[in-house]
């Protein structure tokens, strides 16, 4: 089972998703106090669709998550580059503040992968998420919501 971590006491509130975790080990490695969040277990299929940015979790109601499909259309390399640069900055913040974290190497490697990403290998418009693209070409694919 996978985990969706929401802001606590935000039942029915749009955009209250905080983090996602693939399994209990990943949940335990997040830099959170679990009692401060609403944690909902759900299927691996829903998790993977969120992880690869095919769907967006909109809210939770009780112990159920609601979601909507995501559509991407990067018209030019600069748009995709802007997304990648934002993700890199988020990862750098984690790396700079957590040099001894158990997932440090995983996120450092992913940051390096993003830094070396070849935008010229993409045909535009690019109509899937970068995370799905990496999955499709069998490269590591992580979602910013997984950053501890």
**Percentage of residues assigned to helices:** 25-40%
Number of strands: 5
Rounded mean pLDDT score: 96
In total, how many domains does the architecture comprise? Answer: 2
The poorly predicted ranges are: none
Structural class assignment: alpha+beta
Number of helices: 5
* Integer-rounded radius of gyration: 16 Å
- For the report, how would you describe the main beta sheet? 3 strands, antiparallel
Global outline: globular
Strand residue percentage: 15-25%
Give the strand line-up of the largest sheet: 2-1-3
The sequence of SSEs as H and E is EEHEHEEHHH
- How far apart, in Å, are the first and last alpha carbons? 18 Å
Question: What would you note in describing this structure?
Answer:
This protein folds into two domains: 2-69, no CATH class; 77-146. Helix content is 36%, strand content 20%. It is built from five helices and five strands. The chain has helices spanning 24-29, 44-51, 77-97, 104-115, 130-136; strands at residues 2-7, 17-21, 37-42, 55-61, 64-69. The strands form two sheets. It has a three-stranded antiparallel sheet with strand order 2-1-3. Strands 4-5 form a two-stranded antiparallel sheet. β4 (55-61) and β5 form a beta hairpin. The two termini are 18 Å apart. The model has no long low-confidence stretch (mean pLDDT 96).
